[in-house]
Amino acid sequence: MNTNYVQFTEEMKSTHTLLIPNMLPIHFRLVQRVLENAGYKTELLETHGPHIAETGLKYVHNDTCYPAILVIGQLIDALQSGKYDPHKCALLQFQTGGGCRASNYVSLLRKALINAGMDDVPVIPLGLSGIETHPGFPNSVPLFYRMAHAVLYGDLLMAIVNQVRPVEKNKGEAMALCNKWTDVLVKDLEHGINARRMRKNYRAIIRDFAKIPREDRKPVRVGVVGEIYVKFSPLGNNYLDDFLVSEGAEVVMPGLLDFFNYCVYNGIMDFELYHLGGAKHLMNRIAYKFLCAKQADMIAAIKEEGTFRPMTPFTHTVDLAKDFVGHGTKMGEGWLLVAEMIELADSGVMNIVCTQPFGCLPNHICGKGMMKPIKEKIPGANIVAIDYDAGASAVNQENRLKLMLSAARRNQDG
Ligand code: SF4
C-alpha cells in the first residue's frame, strides 16, 4: 500500500484538530461527537458563501467535480482564515473511493495544499474502501459501527423534521426541537451504543415531534435525489431544502443510511457478478444484514406511533431498481439514484428533483438519462434535473424548480 503521504500519527491525536466539511447538518454533528468520543479534537466547518467556490477554483481545475471544488475550497479557506494553526490541523475527507473521479478527491486536496504552501497538513480519507492507513486514525470497524448509529439517528431526525417543517404552526419549532434532540443524542452517544436505549430514544423523539402543532393541510411533496454531496449539502445545492419549504413544499429525502447500504451492497454485487473481493464478501453480507435490521427498528418505531411516514426499507429499494437498471451499475450514485426515484414514485411522491453536479457523467447517465424510461413506466412522475456548478445561476435553478412545483400543484388539485 502506498504510504507516500503525510501521515496522521498517534501523537497528532492530542495536538491536532480535525477539520471536517459539513455535508449534512444534522448527521455530521452526531458523527463529530462519535469522533470526539474516540479521542479526536474536531471542528465542523459550516462556512458558506461564494468565496468557498472561489477558493476551490483557485486551487482545483474548473473541470473538476463541483463537490470537490466546494469541499477543497472550504478546507483551504479554513486553513487560510487565521482561525486555526495549519501546523496543528488535519483534514478529514469523506471518501467513497468510487471508480469515477470520487477516488481522486484526496489527491486533488493534497495537490491544492502543495499549491497553497501547506503540504505538511495531513489528509485523512474516511470511507469504507480503506484506501489509506494512518497510525493515528485506523479505519476501524468499531468506529464505523458507532458512526452507523449516528447516521441512523440523523436519518430519523431528518425524515421527521422534513415532514413537520412545512406545516408547523410556530415557524422554527421543528428545527429547534431537532437541535435539542441532537444535543441529547450527542450526550447519549458518549455512553456507547445500546440497542434497547436506541429504540427508546427513537420512540421519545417521534412522540416529541408528534406534539408540535401543525396546520391541517397537505403540502405538495417533493423528493430530492442525486449525487450525494449536492443532494444533502446546503452549500452544494444552494439551500434547496429551505427554498422548497419557503414554497410550501414538503421535502422527502431518502436517508444517508441508504448510501451506506448502497456501498456495502455493491461489495456483495462485486462478488456475485465478478467474483471480486472474496475475503470481504462475508463481512459485507454481515454489515448489510445489520444495517437493514437497524433500519427496520427505526421504521417499526415510526409505524408504531403512527403520525409520520416511515422511510422505505432498503431491501425494497433494491428490488424496485431491478426492472430499470442492473445492480452492477455503481459509478457515482449508480443504480441507487434510479432506485430512489422509483422508490419515491412508488410511495406516492411523484415530484422529484434530481440534483447533479454539472459534468458528473455517472449521475447524468443514471439521473437525467433514466428520467425518460421512468416517466414512461410511471405516468405522472414529475421529475426535474437541476445542475449545480460554480457557474450555474441560482435564479435559473429556482425558476426550474418553480416550474416543477407549479406542475405539482396542478396535479395535486386535479
Ligand atoms: S459522482 Fe460525479 S461528482 Fe461525484 S466524483 Fe463521481 S463524477 Fe464527480
The largest sheet, given as strand count, sense and whether it forms a barrel, is: 4 strands, parallel
Q: Overall 3D geometry?
A: globular
The CATH class of the largest domain: Alpha Beta
- CATH domain fold name of the largest domain: Rossmann fold
The tally of domains stands at 3
Low-confidence stretches: none
* Record field, number of beta strands: 8
Structural class: alpha/beta
Q: How widely separated are the two ends?
A: 60 Å
Over the alpha carbons, how many angstroms does the gyration radius reach? Answer: 21 Å
Question: What labels would you give this structure?
Answer:
single chain; 414 residues; alpha/beta; Rossmann fold; 4-stranded parallel beta sheet; 16 helices; 55% helix; 10% strand; globular; binds iron/sulfur cluster
Description:
This protein has helices at 12-15, 25-37, 50-59, 66-80, 105-115, 141-164, 173-189, 195-210, 228-232, 240-246, 256-274, 278-305, 314-321, 334-346, 361-377, 394-413, and strands at residues 17-21, 41-45, 89-94, 123-126, 221-226, 250-252, 351-357, 382-388. By secondary structure, it is α/β, with parallel strands linked by helices. The protein has three domains: 12-138, Rossmann fold (3-Layer(aba) Sandwich), CATH 3.40.50; 140-217 and 277-308, no CATH class; 218-254 and 312-414, Rossmann fold (3-Layer(aba) Sandwich). The strands form two sheets. The protein has a four-stranded parallel β-sheet, with helices on both faces. It has a four-stranded parallel β-sheet with strand order 6-5-7-8, with helices on both faces. Helix 6 runs parallel beside helix 8 (195-210), helix 7 (173-189) packs antiparallel against helix 8 (195-210) and helix 13 crosses helix 14 (334-346). The longest helix is centred in the C-terminal third of the chain and has 28 residues, at 278-305. The mean pLDDT is 93. Bound molecules: iron/sulfur cluster. Iron/sulfur cluster binds at residues 65, 67, 98, 100-102, 227, 332, 357, 360-363.
